[in-house]
Amino acid sequence: MWIERVWMAKIASCRETQPKRNGIAAKRAIARFDIGDFKTDLPMYDDGTRGDEKANDGIYIGSYKVVKGDFTKSARITGYLINKNGNKSFNTIFERVDIDSIPPDPLTGVKAIDKPDDQGFWILLSWDIPKFFEDFDHYNIYREPSPITSLLGLTPISSSGMINLELLSTNNVEVNVPSNGINYFFAVTAVDKAGNKSTI
Ligand SMILES: [Ca+2]
Ligand SMILES: [Ca+2]
């Protein structure tokens, strides 16, 4: 299951430079912004809503809500005003953003075996090391007393012992089981640098 992250890319502001004509304010420009070639012509607002602090002060705010599958690297944010004649006045904001909502692939080969001769308090958990995982950040280990069908609301356990779950090459860990004689269920996920978790 993919869990939507509430992540707002709060983008930019442009100051309006519309002159007054004959003492009457010219028709207000509209403002738009682009996130590189990834998303273009996104609206910006100067009406005191949607993140804009003050209405009609010439400061426009635009935002973009990242949705599933979005991915762009180092995209330049560009804001611009469009006047009533359709002319654009560019106001490049030299900010580059990475947007990544593509979760890692689910881990394969996840196995949990009871550690021999330990009176039952340790489980050996192992998995295959993912290939081609550029934006790896860490693994998460989950231990629950009922079968894990979704990660929603679950908290990963902290790693036991000296195992470094921030190393891609880590592929096994010994997990403590709090009480003997109860079945426990495990899941291992990979998390990328943007915080996207693989599914189980
Ligand atoms: Ca404003
Ligand atoms: Ca990713």
Protein architecture, described:
By secondary structure, the chain is mainly beta. It has two domains: 2-100, Immunoglobulin-like, CATH 2.60.40; 111-192, Immunoglobulin-like. Helices cover 0% and strands 38% of the residues. It has no helices and 13 strands. The protein has strands at residues 8-10, 20-21, 24-25, 30-35, 39-43, 63-65, 71-82, 88-100, 111-114, 122-126, 136-144, 172-176, 185-192. A hairpin with a 3-residue loop joins strand 4 (30-35) and strand 5 (39-43). The radius of gyration is 25 Å and the shape is elongated. The model is unreliable at 1-16 and 22-26 (pLDDT under 50). One calcium ion binds next to loops.
- Average pLDDT works out at 80
CATH topology of the largest domain: Immunoglobulin-like
Strand order, biggest sheet?
Answer: 5-4-7-8
Q: Which CATH class of the largest domain?
A: Mainly Beta
Q: Please give the count of helices.
A: 0
Unreliable spans are 1-16, 22-26
> Helix coverage percent of residues?
under 10%
| CATH architecture descriptor text of the largest domain | Sandwich
Secondary-structure element string: EEEEEEEEEEEEE
Instruction: Catalogue the ligands.
Output: calcium ion
Q: Give the domain tally.
A: 2
Number of strands: 13
Shape, per Cα inertia axes:
elongated
Strand count, sense and closure of the main sheet? Answer: 4 strands, antiparallel
Instruction: Report the portion of residues in β strands.
Output: 35-45%
End-to-end Cα distance: 8 Å
> What class do helices, strands and sheet pairing give?
mainly beta
Rg, alpha carbons: 25 Å
